[in-house]
Amino acid sequence: MLGYQLTFFTQQDRSHQGRPVAQWLVEEARAMGIGGATLTPAAEGYGHDRKLRSVHFFELTDQPMQVTMAVSEADAKRLFARIKEAGVNVFFVKTPIEFGMTGEL
C-alpha cells in the first residue's frame, strides 16, 4: 500500500485537553481507526527555538517525544483535519512510503 509515514515531534510537558500532546496524538489515531502508532521517548533533542531539551533523572517534563505512524493518504487527510479542528500545533514530517505486512507479499 502507498501512503505516508507521519512523524510528530513534541515534548513531555506540552499538553492538549489535559493530556500530553504525544499521548493525545496516539489516542486520536486509535479512535480514528488508524492501524498503529508508536510513541518514542528520546534522550535529547532541540527544536525551532534551538533550546536543548533532554531527560533528567528527576525531571521528565522536558523530555523530547516522537509519534510515528504509517497511514494511507485518506487517513493522513483525516488525521490532519482532526489536528487542525482540535487546535493542536505540533511539528511533523510527512514522508511518502510503501507499507504493508510481509505475510501479504
In short, what is this structure?
The chain is an alpha+beta fold and 105 residues long. The chain has helices at residues 21-31, 73-86; strands spanning 2-11, 15-16, 19-20, 38-41, 44-46, 52-54, 64-71, 91-98.
Task: Describe this entry's structure for a reader.
- With 105 residues, this protein is an alpha+beta fold.
- It has one domain: Alpha-Beta Plaits.
- It has 2 helices and 8 strands; from the N terminus they run βββαββββαβ.
- It is globular.
- The mean pLDDT is 90.
- Portion in helices: 10-25%
Number of discrete helical segments: 2
Q: For the terminal residues, how far apart are their CA atoms?
A: 11 Å
**Secondary-structure element pattern, one letter each:** EEEHEEEEHE
According to CATH, what is the class?
Alpha Beta
Radius of gyration, taken over Cα atoms and rounded to an integer in Å:
15 Å
> What is the overall silhouette?
globular
The proportion of strand residues reads: 35-45%
What class would the helix/strand composition place it in? alpha+beta
Strand line-up of the largest beta sheet: 4-7-1-8
- Give the tally of β-strands: 8
Low-pLDDT stretches are none
CATH architecture tag: 2-Layer Sandwich
Summarize model confidence as the mean pLDDT. Answer: 90
- Main sheet characteristics: 4 strands, antiparallel
CATH topology: Alpha-Beta Plaits
Count of discrete domains: 1
What is the fold's blueprint, element by element?
Blueprint: E1 2-11, E2 15-16, E3 19-20, H1 21-31, E4 38-41, E5 44-46, E6 52-54, E7 64-71, H2 73-86, E8 91-98
Antiparallel strand pairs: 1-7, 1-8, 2-3, 4-7, 5-6
